[in-house]
Each structure stands twice: as C-alpha cells, then as structure tokens.
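## Example pair
The file below holds two records. Each record gives the amino-acid sequence first, followed by its structure token line.
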Amino acid sequence: MHRLAETSFRATNQRNGTIVESLTGTETIKAHGAERVMQTKLEETSVFWPAPTPRCACCRLR
C-alpha cells in the first residue's frame, strides 16, 4: 500500500510540474512550435491517472 501511495504521489507531482511548466512557458512553447511535445509529455505523465468515466445520458445533454 505504501508503494502504491508513493507511486501515486510521484506521478501527481510529475504531472503538476508538467502543467506548471507548460503554463509558465506558454509563449516560449508556442514560439518554438513545441505544443505537440508538451502535449505528449503531459499525456505520458498522466499514465497513472484513471480514464474519465462516461457520463450518463442526462449529463451529456447539458
């Protein structure tokens, strides 16, 4: 259990770091055309996050 918590903690920190890096360097990322690189990096750091659950029919209508 401790190992799982530690892995989750590290994955969350890595993902948050990637998001902060993207937000603070938006102008630089755009200037260098590196949007796809940052998108890939964010997707790779999201491996441990659960997939979104499908919404029920009533929620999709909104």
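Second record, same layout:
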Amino acid sequence: MSIMHKRYQEERLAIIDLGTMAIRLNVYEGYVSVYQEKSFTGIGSTLSEKGHLSPKGKAIVWQKLKEYKKTLSLLEVSYIAILATEAFRSSEDTSDFINKLKHLDGMPLIVLSGEKEAYFLSKGVLAAFPKFSGLVCDCGGGSIEIINMKKGKVGELRSFPYGVMRMSNILLHMQNPRQYVRKMLENDSWISSVKKDQTLYITGGTWRTLAQVFMLYKEYPLMWVNNYSPDLQEFLSYMRKIPSINFDKILLSRIQKQSRLLPTASILFESFLDMLKPSKIIFCAYGLREGYLRELLKKREFKDSPLVSCTRYEARENDRSTISELPKKLYNFSLPENMLLAAYFLAVMKNEAPDKYKGDHAFLRVINLPLVGCTHKELVFLSYAVGLSFGEVHLVGKKAELIKFFLDENDKKQARKLSEVIKP
C-alpha cells in the first residue's frame, strides 16, 4: 500500500470509532487524518427491539477490523485504539463479542462509559474552539451526550440512550413522536436544571447533515459545517419540515446516505433545543475521535493547534514546515497568529497547476481543506490570500460567489497585502 512519505510527524496514531451505526478508521499525523475509512455496520440497529447487537453488524465489524489490522501494519502505525460506544454499553451480548475481538492482538478495545464518551466529545470541541464556554450536545446512533463547559473546563456531563438509530425504531410508527420525546425529556430533572440561554455547540453526524440540508435550502455558499451558526428560530422552523422533504432530489451523497434517519434526527434536535433553550447554536466538525486524539497528543507534548497542524502538513516538503514562531515580517498584520502561520505554510504547498491557473487552484485547495480554528469569513480570506500568493484568482460561478459573499473591498486589499508577504 502506498501512502505519503513521513515528513510531517514521525509517529502515526490510529483511532477506530466503533459506533452504533458505522465503523470508522482514522490514521493521524498530528491533527491531520492522512488515511481514513468508513463502513456502515448497523451493529446497534437491533438494540431497541431485541436488546442485543445485530449478527450481521457483528460480522461486518469483525471483517473490517481484520482488514484494518493489515492496513495499519502497512502504514507503520505506532498506536492503535478501538473506541466502542453506546451499542457496546447497553447490549446484552457484548461480553461474548468483546472476547472474540481480543483475538486481534495489538488492537485494544476500549468500551467507553457514557460519561467518558461525553468527556472526549467535549475535548474534541475544545480542540476546535479553545477555551469556549457553553453546552456541547452530540447525537450519535445510540446515545446523545450533553456537556457543560466553562472557559475550556469540563463541567457536568450526561449521556442519554436516545441516539438517532435507536430512537428511529421507536418513533417510526408513532402518531405524535415529538410529544413522546418532549415528555421523555421533561421527566429528566438533570436536563430541566441545565442553565438556559447559553451557546450550544453541536456535533454528531446526523445533526451535521441537518446543517448541510439547511445550508442547501438557504443557498449558503460554503458547505463546511464547522463554525456554522444559523439563525436559531429559522433553523428550528425548517427542522419541522424535514420529515416531508424528498431527499432523492438532493445530490450530496452524505445526505442521501443518512436520509432515512434525518426525520428522527430533526425531532430529537428540535426537542433537545426546546429543553435547553440556547441563545445560539454553532456546529462543530470535531467530536469523539478528535477529543481522544487531543489527549494523546497532549501526552506527547504536541504544540500545534489543529489549524497550524493541518496547514504545516501542507508545507511538509518545504523548510518552512519546521518553523515554530511567527516570522517577524508578519507582525504588522492584525490577524490571529494561527491564521498568519497557516497562510505562511499554505503559500508553499504543492501546486502543479499551469501557471495561468495556480491562483485558482490554490484558492480551491485551501477552501476544501477541513480546517478548524477559523470562521467561514477567515477561511475564505485565507484561501484568497494564499491564492493570490500563487497568482491572480479568476474564479467564476459559485466559487466566485464565496469571495463576494464573505469579503468586502478592504478585506480583499488586506488579502493582497498578505499575499505579497507570504510569497516564497
């Protein structure tokens, strides 16, 4: 198997997320996922009806883990962890399957408690939004976690067995599923006692997909959900329409694959928000895996933020990738230091486009990177400045609308100034 040479980080860390609906493998160098796989298993699809793991799902998981073991050997990974969540916590036949998985030497399985899962989720959001205060709410296939955060510190947290796959089987044939969920939550004293009017950070695959559906509806020019903060009342109003939407007409594969679960996801979303009454909502691309990764990197005294890590990786074939401090020539810009470092690294990323199109190519490359630690406006600014450092940016169509939507004339002028300074 061929994968890029090791130039950025010598150590590769592998995290396998064994969820209720799917199994995911990510291999990281720093915060960069240099290799990833995902397969739908449905291992928790029988939990609500039968109380045990799906036999078909177990067979898929067993086969995928054997394949992953071979892959990880070829990738020369130094650390592997399998994180199992709600399906493994609550099924009646977990122990037998865990004993079977122990035969896969060198691939330790960690069955996370609900509280531990919530803890790592909060750390994932913290990696994307350092020192934030507010609530974190994650919707998985088998459970929903809520965490209270204050200035980057983990406070009270709770895990609820109300995940989207589990609840879809329960709500499927109900005449009034919203009323059922609302009553269930109203009877929980902990949720009722959570402080209202806080910022709510939302993670979890199906809820992120709801954000993408709304983005399409609003014709929002950027489809990157991290740091997306829609108008709360307008978003909730649209959630009530989700069960009646024909998703066959939506082309995004992520939405197509999860369309069956989106009606349930929207009901859960609306119900939880009605109880938590946040002042605003912000979607986050990071979650459990990134939170667990953050703690691994912390133990290894890794210093880069996710934004710096991901952009330093793009410069890995250039000597710039080795710097640890902001170059003095960038001191005159009022942008955050992480943003300036990111621009400095990206200006030397690989760009094999013809000279005429290098600027456009660089802009498109950066705008499609999974960058966290910057707003959508900052991401477009960064893409434009880096594009200009390679040449002129002559985009047309929807990509040109990104610049028009997010940047005013002063922003574009500042981006051009920055481009001149970051050029190699």
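Notes on the second record: The beta strands are 13-18, 22-29, 32-40, 79-84, 109-111, 134-139, 144-150, 153-160, 199-203, 280-283. Confidence is low (pLDDT under 50) at residues 1-6.
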